[in-house]
TrEMBL record:
Family of the protein in this entry: Belongs to the VPS16 family.
Cited PANTHER family: VACUOLAR PROTEIN SORTING VPS16, VACUOLAR PROTEIN SORTING-ASSOCIATED PROTEIN 16 HOMOLOG
Ranges where the Vps16 C-terminal domain occurs: 497-815
Localization (cell): Late endosome membrane; Lysosome membrane
Biological process (GO), any one: vacuole fusion, non-autophagic
InterPro entries in alphabetical order: VPS16, Vps16_C, Vps16_C_sf, Vps16_N
Coiled coil residues, start to end: 325-352
Domain of life (superkingdom): Eukaryota
Alphabetical UniProt keywords: Coiled coil, Endosome, Lysosome, Membrane, Protein transport, Transport
Gene Ontology molecular functions: actin binding
Protein name as catalogued: Vacuolar protein sorting-associated protein 16 homolog
Length: 819
């Protein structure tokens, strides 16, 4: 260990993270008589003792330390506050365990891990328990009261059963299990008699097994559900141990518990005998997935069960295939003929494949690179004599060992075993290297393993950029523009890197200008704009949104600006952005009509203002007086816009509205909101011809249009007598062909024939054809000597009935051609 500790471990609060994680030490002056001016120091080290952080503790007394699954340090204070620090001593956040904990203070605390995350359990001065199963999503649970509990329990721990966190505590000879609703007394099956107190308890790494140390010196081991006893061991020591942890044995599937006193460590399990070690220094035990880490002031060791492959190869006088293959390879390097003898012996037994696999597996469990190489060379040597041995296992083991050797390096300080590495996965390992700011090593591993860029190099570069954005400071001579350019030169257009995320990190650290510079390199406007709004750079966000061409994004910024600025400033901002102004007008047309009117007023846009008031005059439920007033306002606006036509048309509409209202009052019926033509037609249909003619004169309806309206209305009424009188009232300005067409449309050929004879020569043929008089149409066409009319009549000749007419037309054509 590289650290230079000035205090014994026993005088410190100690927390070590699993999977070769960091070690936190907080010298605890609250346990010793010290001057009030002495402040403790929180120190964080790597597993090899390399210092990572050191900070003076300025908060309240700390009861317990622990590491979360994300390698964040949780510091539980006496007042119930939990302070969370990063790996490098950077403060992340804090939270409270509730008012009851604050009032009664904290006696003891445990940090535990579940499938949901990392949890905290608290024992208060009122001898009540409070816990949260996931500090990332804090939900406090107050556990039930233990009947008759007047003092602190002799020992307690957290259990995780059926995805629920429980508390197991010992009060004298009794055990109680607390869940969210009940307190149950439990009894371990097969417990030796005479127990008056439980002094220590430990849960296995997977929360499946439980160990209890009694005042009689017995260690009971069973399932965490307390339904099955696995074994019991008498260690003949009644003094309470300083620590007791489980040592998992993945090879034999048997159970073992490591118990440590001041200068003695004992490994006990199913066997009748224990393994004892003398401790030269004060030591601390850290349970792991496949063993126990043991560190002191000078050493850091790993206690674990010897893997099967390693035992088969290295035990004395072993004749296992792997052992023989290792010897064969060594003899081959010496150019000895014994290599052939060993190899033949393995081949004769048909165990060469097994020998290669044993060497590969054993290499994975070795920590010394020279021994790894020796075993892998043996495996490679054996592969040469196999025809179809798949190379994947050998190649993957070489890759894994190279990665493991890199992170086990003294300066890196992550002593993972092969089993832990496989459980942790390469992605989590890369995350932990990033947390330690070991970016070059993480990138080298990604490139060596050829991980996809988005999962590997890109992600690490993004973390590096976030770190640089946070750490570079102008006081060190780094301008924001230079920092942003340096980050861009390193990252470029690397896939998976989001400049907006880096900018958000810079903004979170108070580097607003740097964040803006970084956003210049973000190609996605949808990522730029929300952060700019968050930074209160709304006008810049509007420009970016307009450049993107995304109308939804522009609307988002506009609504934000509307809430942020006063009305005058908001409108002035819009005037400088024509696209934004146009989009906002569209929005107002559907949502905020009054705002639209204000916009037109501010811009002196009288033309649009007039159109707005015309639309307003048609609002549902508006009284006639209000509608006329709105139209008058519109007419005034059109005059200001110098649109004489629109102004006159609006005034005419006002007159028409008043007249329609008067007609409704005098004649009844529905006249309001009819067009001028429909009003005339309605009057004619209702028999008020005089009124219709007067209306036409008042509004200067042309004679042709009036005749069409009257003709159509009388035909719809089928008032043929009145229609005939109307046709004779004076010469028709529209001619008499429309009369023929309207009558035929009403299927009245008789009336149509009356008007066909009055049609002028130029339309005579068409009128005669409409009433079905083909013969007369032919005579008229021949008389006019019009080729087009002749062809038209000929096209209407059908069958034998019109044969004579067709012949007449043909003869007329022939004569015309001779001339």
């Amino acid at each position: 260990m590289d650290w230079d500790l000035k205090e014994e471990l026993r005088d410190c609060l100690v927390a070590a993270a699993p999977y070769g994680g960091p070690i936190a030490l907080l010298r605890n002056p609250w346990r010793k008589e010290k001057a009030a001016s002495v402040r403790p120091v929180l120190e964080i080290y790597s597993a090899s003792g390399m210092p990572l952080a050191s900070l003076l503790w300025k908060s309240g007394p700390v009861v317990s330390l622990g590491w979360s699954a994300e390698e964040e340090l949780l510091c539980v204070q006496e007042d119930g506050a939990v302070l969370v620090y990063g790996l490098h001593g950077d403060f992340r956040r804090h939270f409270s365990m509730g008012n009851e904990v604050l009032q009664n203070r904290v006696l003891d605390a445990r940090i535990f891990h579940t499938e949901f995350g990392s949890g905290v359990a608290i024992l208060t001065g009122a001898h009540r328990f409070t816990l949260s199963a996931n500090v990332g999503d804090l939900k406090l649970r107050r556990m039930p009261e233990v009947p008759g509990l007047q003092s602190a329990p002799s020992c307690w721990t957290t259990l995780c059963q059926d995805r629920v966190a429980h508390i197991l505590l010992a009060v004298g000879p009794d055990l109680y299990l607390l869940d969210h609703a009940t307190c149950s007394a439990v009894t371990p099956p097969g417990l030796a008699p005479g127990v008056s107190s439980f002094l220590q308890m430990a849960v296995s790494f997977t929360y499946r097994h439980l160990a209890l140390f009694t005042d009689t010196g017995y260690i009971w081991m069973g399932t965490a559900s307390l339904k099955e006893k696995l074994c019991e061991f008498n260690c003949n020591i009644r003094a309470p141990p300083k620590q007791m942890v489980w040592c998992s044995r993945p090879r034999s599937k048997e159970r073992a518990v490591v118990v440590a006193w001041e200068r003695l460590m004992m490994v006990v399990g199913d066997a009748p005998e224990s393994i004892q070690f003398v401790l030269d220094e004060d030591s601390y035990l850290v349970p792991e997935l496949d063993g126990v880490r043991i560190f002191s002031r000078s050493t850091h060791e790993f206690l674990h069960e010897v893997p099967v492959a390693s035992e088969e190869i290295f035990k004395i006088a072993s004749m296992a295939p792997g052992a023989l293959l290792l010897e064969a390879q060594k003899e081959y390097e010496k150019e000895s003929q014994k290599a052939d003898e060993y190899l033949r012996e393995i081949q004769e037994l048909g165990q060469l494949t097994q020998a290669v696999q044993q060497c590969i597996e054993a290499a994975g469990h070795e920590h010394r690179p020279d021994m790894q190489k020796s075993l892998l060379r043996a495996a490679s040597f054996g592969k040469c004599f196999l025809d179809r041995f798949p190379p994947d296992s050998f190649v993957h083991m070489c890759q894994d060992l190279r990665v493991l050797n890199a992170v086990r390096d003294y300066h890196i300080g992550i002593p993972l075993t092969y089993s832990q590495y496989k459980q942790l996965t390469i992605q989590v390992l890369l995350d932990r290297l990033v947390l330690r700011r070991l970016y070059p090593l993480a990138i080298q591993i990604c490139e060596y393993l050829r991980l996809p860029e988005v999962q590997g190099v890109s992600r690490i570069l993004a973390h590096w950029a976030c770190y640089k954005a946070r750490m570079w400071d102008e006081t060190q001579g780094h301008l924001d523009e230079d920092v942003a350019r340096a980050i861009n030169q390193k990252l470029g257009d690397t896939p998976g890197v989001s400049y907006s995320d880096i900018a958000a990190r810079a903004y979170g650290c108070g580097r607003t200008e740097l964040a803006i510079k970084l956003l210049e390199y973000e190609p996605r406007s949808g990522e730029q704009v929300p952060l700019l709004l968050k930074m209160k750079r709304s006008k810049l966000a509007l420009s970016k949104a307009i450049e993107s061409g995304d109308t939804d994004l522009v609307f988002t910024v506009l609504l934000h600006l509307k809430n942020e600025l006063n009305r005058g400033d908001f409108f002035m901002t819009l005037r400088n952005q024509p696209m934004a102004l146009s989009l906002y007008r569209q929005f107002c047309k559907h949502q905020e009509l009054e705002t639209l009117k204000d916009l037109y007023n501010q811009d002196d846009n009288h033309q649009e203002l007039g159109s707005f008031h015309i639309q307003a005059s048609y609002a549902p439920g508006e009284r006639i007086e209000g509608r006329v007033a709105a139209l008058q306002t519109a007419a005034d606006a059109f005059y200001k816009a110098k649109n004489e036509f629109a102004a006159k048309a609006t005034e005419d509409q006002m007159r028409l509205l008043r007249l329609q209202r008067r007609l409704e009052d005098e004649l009844g019926g529905q006249f309001l909101d009819l067009s001028l033509h429909d009003t005339v037609t309605t009057l004619i249909l209702s028999g008020h011809n005089k009124r219709a003619e007067q209306l036409a004169r008042d509004f200067r309806i042309p004679d042709k249009r009036l005749w069409w309206l009257k003709l159509t209305a009388l035909a719809d009424l089928e008032d043929w007598e009145e229609l005939e009188k109307f046709s004779k009232s004076k010469k028709s300005p529209i001619g008499y062909l429309p009369f023929v067409e309207i009558c035929m449309k009403q299927h009245n050929k008789y009336e149509a024939k009356k008007y066909a004879s009055r049609v002028g020569p130029e339309q005579k043929v068409k009128a005669l054809l409409l009433v079905g008089d083909v013969a007369q149409a032919a005579d008229a066409a021949i008389e006019h000597r019009n080729e087009a009319e002749l062809s038209l009549v000929l096209s209407h000749c059908t069958g034998a009935t019109d044969g004579a007419t067709a012949d007449k037309i043909q003869r007329a054509r022939a004569q015309a051609q001779k001339k």
